[in-house]
Structure formats: structure tokens, C-alpha cells
Amino acid sequence: MPLERRPIRSDKANPPVASYSQGYQVGPYVFVSGQMPVDPATGQLAAGGTPEHTRQSLKNVFGVLEAAGCTYEHVAQATVYMKKLDEIDEMDRVWQEFFPDPDNYCSRAVIGINELVVGACVEIQCIAIKD
Q1: Which one of 59, 76, 78, 85 is CB 3.0 to 4.6 Å from 126, fit for a cystine?
Q2: Distance (Å, rounded) from C-alpha 117 to C-alpha 34?
Q3: Among residues 40, 125, 17, which one has the least CA distance to residue 75?
Q4: Per-residue pLDDT tens for 12-63?
Q5: For the chain, which residues make up each domain, given as ranges?
Q6: pTM (2 decimals)?
Q7: What is the C-alpha separation between 63 and 116, in angstroms, rounded?
């Protein structure tokens, strides 16, 4: 029997800037596309640097997760793209606001990158597994 597939859409995340869905569910797996630090209410890039961009990107990630019926506890893997790897501690402090339980941290990769869309400092994508 084929797995159910559906795009995930949320008003609590910035709309796609190209040809992709904010998220996509295949069976129990929820794939959240890279979320930029754009406020969905204003369409504007979050003011500030790495901490503020991390916070808004995670708010957007969580908007998509919520639309799929997931929470941080469902996240199995995340990838963070950063322009300034020397600010990883700042990113991680904000990360812990959204992932507060050390016994339930997901796996995570942090990748340094030269440039991101819309002038962002941070972009975050993840994979969740819905129970």
C-alpha cells in the first residue's frame, strides 16, 4: 500500500519564494523545507543578526511542524545553514529555547555557507517523525 503524501502549508511560516512546499508529509515523515528568518505577518527579514534570525527561522519551522500536527519532540534531524560559524554559540542558545529538553535533542548538522537567500544569516530545515 503506498504511503499517503501531502504538502504542508502554514500561515505561521514565510511563504515559499520559489517552486517548493513549506513542508511535505510522506507517511509518518514530515520534511520541513529550509525556513528563512522572514516574518510571515510582514514579509520582512527579521531585524538583527544570528540570534534574531535563528529565532524567526525556528518560529517558521515550528509553524510548519504545527500545521503537520508535530512538536519539537517529533523532530528527528535538523540542518542549520549559517553564514557565520563563529556565532554557533549564539545560535545554540536560541535553539535551546525551542528544544528545551536535553533528553530529547534531535540530531543536528550545522553547515557554514557563504550566502543565503534574502540576506539571511541562518536557514533551518528539519525532518520530523509523526507518531
Answers
A1: 78
A2: 10
A3: 125
A4: 999 998 899 999 999 999 999 999 999 999 999 999 999 999 999 999 999 9
A5: 5-129
A6: 0.96
A7: 21
